[in-house]
Amino acid sequence: MSILGTRVVRTEDPLFLTRGAVYTDDLTDERLTGALHVTFVRSQVAHGRILSVDTSAALEAPGVVAVVTATDLTDLAPIPAGFPFVDKAVIRPWLASDVVRFVGELIAVVLTEDRYQGEDAAEMVVVDIDPLPAVVGTQAAARDEVLLFPDVGTNVYAAFGEPAPEDFFAGCEVVVSQRIVNQRVAPVPLETRAAAAVWGEDGRVTIWCSNQGAQAAKMEIASWLGLDPSLVHLITPAVGGGFGAKIGADPEFALIAQVAKIVGRPVRWSESRSENLVGMLHGRAQDQVVTIGGRRDGTVEAYSLVVDQDAGAYPRLGVVLPTLTMLMAGGVYAFAKVHAQARVLGTNTTSIGAYRGAGRPEATAAVERAVDLFAAELGMDPADVRRKNVIPAFDSPHTTSMGATYDTGNYAAALDKALEAAGYADLRAEQARRREAGDVRQLGIGLSVYVEITGAGGEAGAASENATVEVHPDGTATVLTGTSPHGQGHATAWAMIASDQLGIPLEKITVLHGDTDLIPRGGGTMGSRSLQQGGAAVHQAAGELVELAKKRAAEKLEANPEDLVVDQGLAGLAVRGTPGVGITFAELAADEQLLVQTTFSANGPTFPFGAHVVVVEVDVESGKTEVVRLIAVDDAGTILNPLLADGQRHGGFAQGVAQALLEEVLYDSDGNPTTSTLADYPFISATELPSFELVEMATPTPMNPLGAKGIGEAGTIGSTPATQNAVIDAVAHLGVRHIDMPTTPMRVFRAIQQAQQGGN
Amino acid sequence: MIPAPFEYVKVASVDEALSALAEHGEDAKLLAGGHSLLPIMKLRLAIPSALIDISGIADLSYVRVEGDGADAIVAIGAGTRHYELERDEVARAEVPMLPHVAGRVGDPQVRHRGTIGGTTAHSDPASDLPTALLALGGTVVLQGPGGRREVPVTEFWTGFFETAMSPDEMVVELRVPRTGSTGWGYEKFTRRENDWPIVAAAAVGSRGGGAGGPLRVALANMAGTVLRATATEEALAGGASIAEAAELADQGTSPGADMHADADYRRHLARLLTRRALETAAGAA
């Protein structure tokens, strides 16, 4: 029986949970002996002109070896925007010396013998800033009264799409429009960012950093520092979570390398949680306007989504997130007309990057809210409106009006499975009973049906990934992958794939990743791509290794290669019909290196789908919500390891509920962050979550031989709008139509108050 | 985040702690559980010159009943940790609101570190145990160079992070009247279970007086200190219904605004939680 599809316990966990896993801050590499510690001096002002940076007192402080400022980095070109459609004048200084554009912007680098000395000395760097008015929020940015880059003439970094035609909703019997905030959130990985760097006598620099893709980060840093890529060796040790915010190199990583060169010593850096909450990329941050129109029988005829994306101060992946939102705007629905348009605006805040779902959750949140608003306007059950409008089941590619080609889908079946598991009719009856009785705790039932795109990126931008499989003479095997786990469980999963084909037991298979000398190419782990591309590459490499072994074994066994089959018990090859006559892969490897390096190219991205039902209780006297059930159908195709897939779903649900109920990064009107510690940023914990109810559904994709679609982000995409819809549903009978996320108790309470006043 | 440099002294007795306080002066701070002090030191909002670690003083952790009948007092050592109070059999029988409230502080890590003396001395208006202590009545026992003195809880918390304690004194004991089976209620409103209260209301006592005394209500996070809902208490004493009296709970308060709640919403919560706490107290009586 194949090991695939079984709940193999994660082989990496004993190291993560006890000892043995080495994170960047744990490194004891002898090349880092005597490393100096970096403490960054960051701007405390959101927008302002720097009058002076005085390092003299800090230089006298105990343990200070150097304080690096912009004047020490004049041989480096500033960081370009990195996107061809963004004005070339939008550049980021390595260390600000003229204008600061967000609280947290880098101004100086303090290098000390001891980490403790660094924080004391950094306080002694005196930065005099003449404040300018700060741009906070997309509405302020769009007014262009204060410009982040006056030379550019506007805060609009990019614009996609055209306005909807004037007659877009002509003929619709009902049209509903709503402004929706998809708020800024912080990724909060367990491991904050860290980096270390040392230059060798050969002129090469070795950089360790916490990142989701060593190869891409290496190329970016080499380009920034003007180095030939062959001179950069980048290693990502154990990485404790990323959620998208560790995609791409951060300027801090390149700076670590540059200051190591300046001082001629190894250096290292590990940020605090407070530094992480202002210095690391944030996610989401879209202001949306949805308009939905159709017939009174519940048929939607036209849907429009207009997005203002907050990019933060400097362009990162946030600049392109709205293109994914636009691509997935219509979601699972067969709306006759779909329109989407977006602007990307610069503000005096931390830059926006990818965050679990990256552009797709924003699309799902918008359309799932819009469908609920449409249903509420018609007085129809939101499940009925969804059934009426979903794309009928299909098993050959379906191209949407936004240009996405969905692989397979059966959205009505996913919805029905979720509703059945939830006991939907009973829930509605209980809701009616509580409404009738005027209970303090009202029941809310929220739905979402989603489809998303996974595996869209990849090595060199294509849907491909490489893998190397080698069997050694001692019977062990090594797998090299260009994907880059940061909690997902690749060591277990990739070993399962290789073991399934070679018969070599899991404990004899080592999976290596995140070292650009060992694995020069790779697309990293992001966009839920790893299994469908990286795992498929391991599958292909192991298969090719078997073919190579057959050719070599045929001679030795005096048999035709076609007559040889893999003998799992032997971990080798045997002659078909003649059990016991065979040769192990290890024996073949003893004669000649047995190694295959290959690149797998997928037929295209995949489109996982599902349906979530969230049940909440809302205390209508206080406005507080408790999530009591979360029922999820997540169709990710063939499941390699249900334990790992369930873990991805659980984490995704938690982050989705967190965005719907709790989390929001806030700034005051001067651009000061007010949620820069975990005392203020309401990170979710187990006490705020129910036990999840998982419903299985698996439609294999034809895009890869494993039949696998992405599962890393689906849980977040489905659970966020289902939770928000549930909260609103709980108080809908009181006249409430919409509450923005996070649906805090105060917001819910005020929405009830306003609805009741409006009804008088 | 790393605190600014400080001296560290570990003491084994109250006397040693007091001499260390005298020696290091006003900029020294006592360190008990550290879960309030250390975070603000890491943010460099507090930069004490010295920390005097009193967590090793063994005889500061106890719960005992002194006296009999209506005058019985429950004495709690200042070094008693929240989890010890939560599980203490004497406390559960004699003053059950306190162990319940101790179990609502923060999360298990916090409750295994934090002490009742520490949270009392810290004087954060958004604290659970001070709210309960204020509703219960009683005294804070201080010890200083001049010996011991008792300050009524109604006079102890004088402002945000400010108390009636001198810099050369320390909290050594909390003394509250035994309530036994008298009704009580504690309503804590948070967005997450382990948070500080956005608002909390503690109610204890009964209309007839008796062992637990008349009905009293204390509120958390409605002003610079924890405070009593005196208008509600007076209305109850005058025969008002719980619903009527609770509507007065925010009188005399001056709540602040933050990302979780503005002042008006806090006032609403104070009235709502007071009503619920009083209903619970009445139901249990």
Briefly characterize the structure.
Chain A is of the alpha+beta class and 760 residues long.
Topology:
The complex is a heterodimer of chains A (about 750) and B (about 280).
Chain A: H1 13-17, E1 36-42, E2 48-54, H2 56-60, E3 64-68, E4 99-100, E5 106-112, H3 115-122, E6 126-131, H4 138-143, E7 156-160, E8 174-185, E9 194-199, E10 205-209, H5 214-225, E11 232-235, H6 251-263, E12 267-270, H7 273-279, E13 283-294, E14 300-312, H8 321-327, E15 337-346, H9 360-378, H10 382-389, E16 398-399, E17 405-406, H11 411-422, H12 424-437, E18 441-451, E19 464-471, E20 477-481, H13 490-502, E21 509-513, H14 530-557, E22 564-567, E23 572-575, E24 578-584, H15 585-591, E25 594-601, E26 609-619, E27 625-635, H16 642-661, E28 692-695, H17 714-730, H18 745-759
Parallel strand pairs in A: 1-12, 10-11, 14-15, 20-21, 27-28
Antiparallel strand pairs in A: 1-5, 2-4, 2-6, 3-5, 7-15, 8-13, 9-10, 9-12, 13-14, 16-17, 18-26, 19-20, 19-25, 22-23, 23-24, 26-27
Helix pairs in contact in A: 5-6, 8-9, 9-17, 13-14, 16-17
Chain B: E1 7-10, H1 14-24, E2 28-31, H2 37-42, E3 50-53, E4 63-66, E5 73-77, H3 82-87, H4 89-94, H5 97-102, H6 108-113, H7 116-122, H8 128-136, E6 139-144, E7 147-152, H9 153-156, E8 157-159, E9 162-163, E10 170-177, E11 184-189, E12 199-204, E13 216-220, E14 227-228, H10 230-237, H11 242-246, H12 263-284
Parallel strand pairs in B: 1-3, 2-3
Antiparallel strand pairs in B: 4-5, 5-10, 6-7, 6-10, 8-9, 11-12, 12-13, 13-14
